[in-house]
From TrEMBL:
The keyword Membrane applies. Keywords: Membrane, Transmembrane, Transmembrane helix. The keyword Transmembrane applies. This is Uncharacterized protein. The chain crosses the membrane at residues 44-70, 76-98, 110-136, 142-163. The lineage of its organism: Bacteria, Bacillati, Actinomycetota, Actinomycetes, Geodermatophilales.
Amino acid sequence: MSAPLPPLMESAKAVQGAGPPRGFGPPVGVVLAGVRHLRPPAPVLAAAALLAVVPVALLALAVLLGYQLLGSDLWLFFRAVFLVPVVGVPFLAAALAWRGLKRVVHTGAFADGFFLARLGLVGAVVYTAALVAMLLGDDRPAPWTAVLPYVVLVYLWLPWLPLQLPSARAWPRRVALRHGTAVADELEAQLLCAARQHPGRQVLLCPTTPPLVPHLLQPVADDTGEGWQLSWHCPTCGQPVPTVAHRAAAGARTGMGGADWLYLTWVAADATAADPVGLGRPELERYAFAAAAGVHAGEQLLALVPAGRTRVPLLRRHGRVMSPLPESWDRSAVEQDLQVARARLAGARQEQARRSAG
């Protein structure tokens, strides 16, 4: 049973080396709304049409293989066991291809649309080595079907051609803010920077974020709207980290989730643990900002609890990667922490008012 492990590990390394799209990407509704708001250039739409054939073909292949497997003479147990890789692998590849296609159209992340093409290059090397070995060991000519994998590989890279046209190359700059997270205002842009981790060079996230202090955000704008950007250097990997946020439309839901707000309540509680009376003027200003951030985060977290429910639902706990205790999501715990945060904010404002009056 241990023999399949090395091939599986090597296959996993090949997949990671091909750079699959990270995260879930924008929902279909968001992509369609973005297309209605700002129509992509014709070359981008042409490339998207070519890329769309891949997930459709993979889904059709998954259905065909599943139908053939279920109709085979194998025992029911083996049919059930083989159904997972036979159907699951092309289905997973289709999902990744679809995820990359959405990002090509919505954010101009062209590289995400060519994950299967890069993976095909790895497969082509292995296939070519096997084909050469077969031809050297057999005097018969190879069948014409031996070129089909190369035809498929050429098609996988074909959408790259229209994306080299000037209008397509300008598309990522026109929608640069879509790479960021939707926030309600500049304060939430500040809090986003303090909540989200740097993706890092590897698969794992760097554990660092900017401190919970008011930063000088740079206003940015593109064809999709307005936003802010904070540039800082990650102390873990040393890379410059541009954190981008764009202003959400009026009434639209922001991209910050329960995990972001819960983490911010913890950071704010740590930053306001001291007595504000003994702080200097700059420290008191940072204390007041952190206290206000804790109140805002607590209120947003409490708003995620539906009426009649006792805790934040699972689907609203997205955002920062973290594993808090289950009781951290309870309404009673959030209300208790919010009460403490409001008291600390009131104490900071009283101290500021006292010093201003004196």
